[in-house]
Fold:
Amino acid sequence: MRASRLSSSSLAVPRSGIRDVFDRAGAIPDAISLAVGEPGRTAPEYVVEAAARAARAGLTHYTDVLGIPELRGAAARYTSRVKGLRYSPDTEIQATPGATFGLFLALMAVAEAGDEVLVPSPHFTSYDAEIQLTGARPVYVPLRPENGFRLDADDLARAITPRTKAILLNSPGNPTGAVTGAEELARIADLCIDNDLWAISDEVYHPFVYVDGMEAAPSIAAVPGMRDRTIVVDSLSKTYAMTGWRVGYLLAPAEVIEETSKIAELVHSSINAPAQYAAAAALDGPMDVVRETRAEYQRKRDLVLSALSRVPALSFATPEGAFYAFVDVRGTGLSAQAFSTGLLEQAKVAVVPGNAFGDAGAGFVRLSFAGAEDDLVEGLARLAAFAESRMRSEIPTAVGAASRV
Ligand SMILES: Cc1ncc(COP(=O)(O)O)c(C=O)c1O
Structure:
């Protein structure tokens, strides 16, 4: 008898911690969700129309594995305009079914058994499993709350070993909202160059930065010497509120795209054709929609900050980007898990316990401010009331509080 009918590689992959929250929140239909990392908006009308036009015109066949030339051209123009980076649409850009799959292709192209990939943590939930599936090992590098969760090159340097193959960067970051500044990126670039490492840069939140004078988070690919050792992973999911369209793209040296396209040919052959036309229209379209979205998120972020700062039991680092607040709930005497379960059951508000983003997230919860404003305002009021009620119930017995954690 076999030990298991299922493969050890698939069994070893952890289930996403976020799925548990969705399952539990789904069982309470009138709960307010501040859990999902997705925009409340939908794609602009001209984007939807581009897909409809393509479908009506019968542009519904397999496409080139790299994506239609229109999309690659639009991605090249967008990247040059917004990030100041130039990539060849013929050899250095590949359309992917979202950044999630783009990340997997990037990792498959550079990492293998015996390798280590550095993951600043708390981190996006897919990273560990995707690294593990290549046979490589994720090595976590702490993002420190006292440093606003900003990545510090010294912490990365301490984690590098002869087996380190790549560093996974995510700025603005999920779940912390931290942005890695240009100076720190230059120090990280030195580490990559000195130790012959790849940088895999997940830039899905790049336009959502709330730092004066910053239009987009800086990319490590723009640091001199890094273009040839960086794989940029980008997506339309967040920028254009197109999560369900499943379109993203890789920007990388031709030798990488050579490999990622070989793998993609085997595992998905090409991506949804009308969605590619929509994505091309979005990337070539006016930037107003992105700027409006950023202004909306910044306003919502400020709502979150003002609501949370009135609750002594909660503390947080001001998110400089993305659309998440990562809130320290330890002052309530509850663990992240107990806080999010209690908040859902007693106040009908879903947030994600921080340990879903790695052990470094223990004691924190992530709340998203990308959804409807009414829900956000009501959800924050309930969250604040819940945290305060915990404080009142904690006062009599500090020892009892600890035992309930
Ligand atoms: C950091 C990060 N990378 C990638 C993704 C996935 O993006 P996509 O929808 O393009 O697969 C997400 C989604 O939440 C994310 O937060």
The chain has two domains: 8-42+289-391, 47-284. The domain at 47-284 is CATH 3.40.640.10 (Aspartate Aminotransferase; domain 2). The radius of gyration is 21 Å. The pocket of pyridoxal-5'-phosphate is lined by residues 37, 98-100, 124, 170, 174, 202, 204, 235, 237, 243, 248 (CB under 6 Å).
